[in-house]
Task: inverse folding
């Protein structure tokens, strides 16, 4: 029976982690709402056990977590329903603890920090979210770390910046990558010339695979930074260099997002997070590297090449 379970496994990060765990020859369980989606992604891997769940039901969570030692939590919600994040974490903790899960790792975001006070940002930076989404993510983390402090389960959080990579559609760069290959105009969120960082999704899995086997990782929050500070403009130029043709872009700033948001609920939800485009949270992951050793990070040039190729 697999001792590692990925809850919310069907996304890009889940696939990266599953690949890294499978490469070690370890069986793993993938848990999601849709059996068909899980089978499409993991059905050909003999190491993968496929389980469906109802994340609203602690009993369903407990059944999905039974026999598991380590739970990796990647559960997403609709961008218009961030209030579900703490609620689902609460139910997951009840079910996981009931099932005897020993430890849980949450894949987190920079949202709980709010406006950055320093550059780069270390793990001891205040969590002072000024947005609704940041408050919901902070509440999610607080529930998890409180359970750890009470001795009910061992817990840790791995924060990621924005990400990109082969087949990753939920990325600021996806429109540009698609347009660079297929032609047309790339819709992007600007400004494009501000400092930013991106993590290449295939780099995440090996880090998580090492982290869950490191007892000292639990009880605190860690950062995994990107492959250095860049800009969207620089990465667009790299796409142009590799494809040999000019890329047309259509850039929306905060005002344009507000206007589009009058008709598009998803775009409306991006408005409050636009500060990350003008006051980005650039992360320092030196503590993580001291914990688990050097981290292999794909260069932006190579990451763009592989994304375009896919």
Result:
């Amino acid at each position: 029976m697999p001792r590692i379970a990925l809850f919310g496994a069907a996304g890009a990060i889940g696939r990266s982690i599953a690949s890294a765990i499978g490469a070690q020859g370890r069986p793993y369980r993938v848990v999601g709402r849709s059996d068909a989606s899980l089978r499409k992604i993991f059905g050909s891997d003999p190491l993968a056990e496929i389980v469906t769940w109802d994340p609203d039901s602690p009993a369903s969570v407990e059944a999905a977590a039974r026999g598991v030692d380590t739970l990796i939590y990647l559960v997403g919600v609709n961008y218009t329903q961030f209030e579900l994040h703490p609620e689902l974490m609460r139910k997951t903790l009840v079910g996981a603890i009931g099932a005897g899960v020993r430890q849980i790792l949450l894949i987190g975001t920079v949202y709980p920090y709010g406006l950055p006070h320093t550059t780069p940002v270390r793990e001891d930076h205040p969590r002072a979210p000024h947005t609704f989404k940041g408050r919901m993510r902070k509440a999610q983390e607080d529930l998890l770390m409180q359970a750890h402090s009470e001795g009910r389960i061992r817990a840790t959080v791995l924060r990621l910046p924005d990400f990109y990579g082969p087949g990753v559609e939920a990325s600021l760069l996806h429109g540009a990558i698609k347009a660079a290959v297929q032609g047309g105009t790339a819709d992007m969120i600007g400004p494009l010339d501000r400092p930013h960082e991106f993590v290449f999704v295939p780099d995440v899995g090996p880090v998580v695979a090492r982290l869950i086997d490191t007892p000292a990782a639990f009880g605190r929050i860690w950062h995994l930074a990107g492959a250095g500070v860049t800009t969207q403009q620089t990465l667009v130029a790299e796409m142009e260099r590799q494809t040999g043709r000019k890329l047309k872009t259509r850039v929306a700033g905060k005002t344009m997002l507000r206007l589009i948001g009058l008709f598009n609920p998803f775009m409306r939800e991006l408005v409050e997070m636009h500060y990350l485009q003008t006051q980005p949270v650039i992360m320092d992951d030196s503590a993580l590297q001291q914990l688990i050793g050097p981290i292999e990070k794909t260069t932006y040039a190579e990451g763009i090449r592989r994304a375009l190729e896919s």
